[in-house]
Amino acid sequence: MYTTELQKVDPQQAPTREPQELVDAFEARVADDAFIEPKDWMPEAYRRTLIRQISQHAHSEIVGMLPEGNWITRAPSLKRKAILLAKVQDEGGHGLYLYSAAETLGASREEMIDALHSGKAKYSTIFNYPTLTWADIGAIGWLVDGAAIMNQVPLQRTSYGPYARAMVRVCKEESFHQRQGYDALLVMAAGTDEQKAMVQDAIDRWWWPAIMMFGPSDDNSPNSAQSIRWRIKRETNDELRQKFIDATVPQVHLLGMEVPDPDLKWNEERGHYDYGAIDWEEFYAVVRGEGPTAKERMEARRKAWDDGAWVREAADAHEARRRIKAAA
Ligand code: FAQ
Question: What is the pTM of this model?
């Protein structure tokens, strides 16, 4: 989703001038499940694909702080507020690990942030939906972090070392996020009729956007085949989507709620749930930046960046003085 001209790349069009012996050695290491490290030789298309995916992932974490951050001042108890604060801070930390991982590939932080702010780079569709009630905060933790974990657990074995290692800690933290979200909904689902209705309404609004988070179907996923071959992606979009649905449907039922999909049905033969048609028009519209809160999200990010300019300037000035002193 990181689509600056510099980084947009068709992996099929990898430069042909790359020395064959280096390409062969790289392919052999990947096939052997060895990690590729920043100083190792790698094909240019591999490097660019990683920058695209990792920077998109980082932007998603940072923009993903906004829908929940919106509820910190309105959490229903001190305990819920402390949990939510910790969770939102964790997401900020994930963004920072990921930006650092992308920097090891030669992308600068300024370049990545600039691409986000100018609209050239994208972030996960899920964060362009509004958080209308407290139940939405539970639904994000449970469904959105749940989908993120399903996608990120295999990324702990992605072929690029710094990305894989960042994912280990990220997954541990996401797992706490998911549990706190489900716990908040369990409490509400055992509450008043009004609370139960809020839980169902949140599931109705977040279910399909969470299913869409996994990206286009495998038939329409231009990057998957090459990314699977390079072991950047370890499972396809549809495989992960199916796993998520199979794991999550029983959790919806445990809450005493309904899945908003009339076509959902356990398929004994496949050993999986069959599910209804995904509204791909909605997905692509949100990818294009037409989501319900897309404008608001970008305004908030640009303002945060501008408001933080003095911190960056102070850090630069401090570093300049430290160098002068060290040189003296
Ligand atoms: N939204 O060919 P593919 C989180 C784009 S973290 C927007 O399948 P690929 C934590 C895709 O970039 C959530 N665009 O692409 C949290 C490509 O466009 P491009 C983020 C999407 O890369 C929780 C085009 O469609 N997680 O939630 C989306 O092989 C709570 C074709 O797609 C990650 O980023 C989408 N959902 O597979 C934080 C995980 N899906 O760039 C706060 C790492 C696809 O060619 C609160 N990323 N597109 O112009 C990945 O695993 C992959 O990049 C995929 C997409 C699976 C997202």
Answer: 0.94
